[in-house]
Amino acid sequence: MKQSPAFLSPQPRQILELLEPAIVKRLQNEKRGQGIGKHYKPFLTVQDVPSKGRIHRRPSLTHNRIVHLLSDLELAAFLLFDWQKSVIDIREQFPLNPEITIDIAKRLGIKHPAYNGVIQVMTTDLLVDFNLNGQHSTQAVSVKYSQDLEDERTIEKLELERRFWEKEDIEWFVFTEHEVPVICVKNIRWLAPHIHSYDLDESERTRVFENILHVLDAAPEEKISVLLSQLDRQQGLELGSNLQYFRHLAAQSAFQWDMQSYLHSSLKAKDVTPSVYWLKKDVEYVHA
Prior knowledge:
two-stranded antiparallel ribbon
């Protein structure tokens, strides 16, 4: 990626003088928009701007950092990327170099985003880094509700954003509610918080995995919630204990199912497949 922190002191000097002192402070002193992984600081946080709908602060599986998401739609997009094993970093509310966006706006004859006459720093909702088979790539994602795409001013700002990332030679696309696989997102929301809910040693996780696998194999047509409740009673555990274990192990990829098609609440034993790696005890367990 070509963009570097050098734009935090943009030249010519007139560009810097166009920015509100609070924005300059955010960029320079607070180092917003800088860093990678758990050290990244978003340019905008949930405290900085009004949002459309609910705002969200939540931990990321990818880099174990609290992320700032400004709508339910941003949350849905984030969850989908955060769940992918090929994703190695996600930077939300990523600031764009105002030198470049101002120049693009002038060339296109588009008014640059400003507030009360003060130039604003444009942001991209999600900047996602992938590593697939050793090949690194980056995608810039603008998250927008489809009704907003009918607004002429929104389209102009998206064109500025698109041109910016084109100049950076980075793929850019718009993510709307129509791209949300609703069942998959619900499943991720059900699993993701439980990836670190336990820290099992090798013997514990083998025992739990094999106990759950045994009851699933014994009654393929039964719902897993029923089977795991029966296992709780057999083991003298509080009801829900083995379901919590199942959520933890599934978040750790020990159990899998077609998350696009089957909602967790309707799962039957036959819908769930044990991981070949866990069966072979070749486990990459993520400790809390």
